[in-house]
Write a structure and sequence with these properties.
This protein is mainly alpha-helical. It has 10 helices and no strands. The radius of gyration is 19 Å and the shape is elongated.
């Protein structure tokens, strides 16, 4: 699916990215406190550290900011999953590394993830399918890791088994953010990653070649 373009009047791409990162950070805090509809673009501009006039040099609507929040989550996950996997693609070690990286991104972006799921309903009909497609592409990253393990002879899994395991991993990562009020009283992030990974791999052992 083609990336949904958010128009900006400023041509300096690095400056556009910098300003939009500032917007995302400010908007996430406001959306958590007041909700998408209860937050004004003027408040987003103030939280980002610049004027309302400057804000509109980088976006056109308030919805653009929510879209950018959703889009940035995917980009961070993709970048982290691609780091460090070249040497061990198609191995259980690469799968374990990918799970740990994903869980850590979910920890770092837990506020953004919560806002995305709380407010995604506010996206327009043209933006919503793109954001949902992004989520499925994140699940697809784990499907690819699992498929490579099968192709490399480390696992024997059917297509349906690969799909459900990928969704399980995806939800377990998000659970750290959704249930952090309870989980943080019981586990550190490292403990959570180890326990969830051990649980997953205990189930995968029956499919090891």
């Amino acid at each position: 699916m083609k990336k949904r373009e958010v128009q900006a009047s400023v041509k300096d791409e690095k400056l556009v990215q910098k300003r939009r990162d500032q917007m995302i950070k400010g908007a996430v805090t406001l959306f958590k406190e007041k909700g998408f509809h209860g937050t004004t673009t003027r408040e987003i501009a103030k939280a980002a550290g610049f004027s309302i006039g400057t804000l509109y040099e980088y976006i056109r609507t308030k919805e653009d900011v929510l879209y950018l929040v959703c889009d940035s989550i995917y980009d961070h996950v993709r970048e982290r999953l691609e780091q460090g996997l070249d040497q061990e693609k198609g191995t259980l070690a690469s799968l374990k590394l990918g799970i740990a990286d994903y869980f850590r991104v979910m920890d770092e972006l837990q506020a953004e993830v919560l806002v995305m799921y709380q407010e995604v309903k506010s996206l327009s009909k043209d933006a919503l399918p793109y954001v949902l497609k992004k989520e499925m592409e994140m699940v697809g990253m784990f499907e690819n890791l699992l498929t490579r393990c099968v192709e490399n002879g480390e696992l024997t899994l059917s297509k349906k088994q690969i799909e459900i395991i990928a969704h399980d991993i995806f939800v377990q990562g998000q659970m750290w953010g959704f249930r952090r009020w309870a989980l943080r009283k019981l586990f550190t992030l490292d403990e959570y990653i180890d326990l969830q990974t051990d649980h997953l791999f205990a189930g995968l052992n029956q499919y090891r070649v």
